[in-house]
Amino acid sequence: MKRNFILLSLLALSLIMIQAQSNSIHQFKVKDINGETFDMSSLKGKKVLVVNTASKCGLTPQYKQLQELYEKYKDTGFTIVGFPANNFMNQEPGSIAEIKEFCTQNYGVTFQMMDKVSTKGKDQSPIYEWLTQKSKNGVKDSEVSWNFQKYLIDEDGKLVDFVAPKKSPMSDEIVNWITSK
User: Fold this and answer.
1) What is the pLDDT of residues 89-104, one digit of tens each?
2) What is the pTM of this model?
3) Which class for 75: exposed (0-12), middle (13-18), buried (19 or more C-beta within 10 A)?
4) Burial class of residue 96 (count of CB atoms within 10 Å of its CB; 0-12, 13-18, 19+)
5) At what angle do helices 172-179 and 62-73 cross, to 10 degrees?
6) Residue 103 burial by CB count (10 A; 0-12/13-18/19+): exposed, middle or buried?
7) 19-64 pLDDT, tens per residue?
8) Contact of 141 with 97, CB cutoff 8 Å
């Protein structure tokens, strides 16, 4: 009887640990803009703003605000991870090399940029499945409605919320989240 209780306790603890890991963005490994593997677990302990980007969108000037936000708060346990995506009206048609050059030359982007992904549809990347499905992130469902939708991830890799594409990266909502303890 005691042995069964111990085994059941260990099983329950294992399931809790598996569930906790699956509800964290830290479980993912993705390709960065240089084609290297980037382990999202390297962001443990940081607040992370995940944003889908595009070079030929009316919201593309948000790159400037994202870079300003990154520069201002990067030393406070905050970072940005950009995922170029071509899901909306072919507004990110370029190769990853072209995207990298565009971001660097036009906006001086130094925050972490990843390889191009799909944010929705049948070919949705696993990280965006996690970001948009409550059954995977444990918090809420969402749909990526346009380029520059922003996802707020806490220091433990948990989804906090998302911010609409048209809202400035320098909005009070985002800055207050970054600066809150």
Assistant:
1) 999 999 999 999 999 9
2) 0.89
3) exposed
4) middle
5) 20
6) buried
7) 444 689 999 999 999 999 999 999 999 999 999 999 999 999 999 9
8) no
Beta strand ranges found along 32-167 (DSSP E)? 37-39, 47-53, 78-84, 112-113, 150-153, 159-163
Residue with tokens 């708060």: 73
Q: How far is the C-alpha of 106 from the C-alpha of 36, rounded, in Å?
A: 23
- The average pLDDT across 152-162 equals 98
Active site residues: 57
Residue 117, token pair as written in the block: 């992904």
pLDDT confidence of 181, banded at 50, 70, 90? confident
pLDDT at 69 over 50: yes
Q: How far is CA 29 from CA 35, 41, 127, 132, 176, in A?
A: 12, 8, 9, 17, 29
